Amino acid sequence: MNITKFFQSKKFTVVLIAIVALIALLGAFKVGMVVGYKKAGYSYRWGENYHRNFAGPRNGFLGDFKRAFGDKDFIGGHGTFGSIVTIDIDPAGARPTTLIIKGKDGVEKTVLVSNTTEIRDRRDTIKASDLKGDDQVVIIGSPNEQGQIDAKIIRIFR
Fold it and tell me: Quick check: 67 and 17 in contact, CB under 8 A?
């Protein structure tokens, strides 16, 4: 009889609600941890490739603080300039899909060229197949998770 009275008592109801609330709170906390871990992993992978592809400060972001403001080898953090070292051609489409650009400091960056990439030589729009090795280019685009540049605009200086 005492057991049935205990299960019907107010104390049992309060304890049961508290346990369910605690389990729900811990579940929400765990979901937040998983989401945070995924975001941190993305940021870490992107950050590991940032310096190589966008030529950030040579000694890290705080290592050479004065030089970081005066001599950058990138455009707003989302592009690069230099000369074309390698052009990888898509065998099916016979158009470049990947460019390797070497900056003035010798750092090579990978640039992805798509069908929507605008390629300009002065005022003229040209085809991707007109690109040649040693062309001086400025590339503006978006970084991807691997630290490559998805080119939006390529401008050639001949």
Answer: no
pLDDT by residue (tens digit) across 132-152? 888 999 998 888 888 888 899
Question: How many CB atoms lie under 10 A from the CB of residue 75?
Answer: 14
> At 155, which amino acid appears?
R
pTM comes to 0.51
Residue for token digits 């030589």? Answer: 121
Type and span of the H or E element at 17? helix 10-54
Radius of gyration of the chain (CA): 27
Dihedral (Cα; 55, 57, 61, 65), 10-degree rounding: -160
| Domain 1-158 -> CATH class | mainly beta
Q: Where are the domains of the chain?
A: 1-158
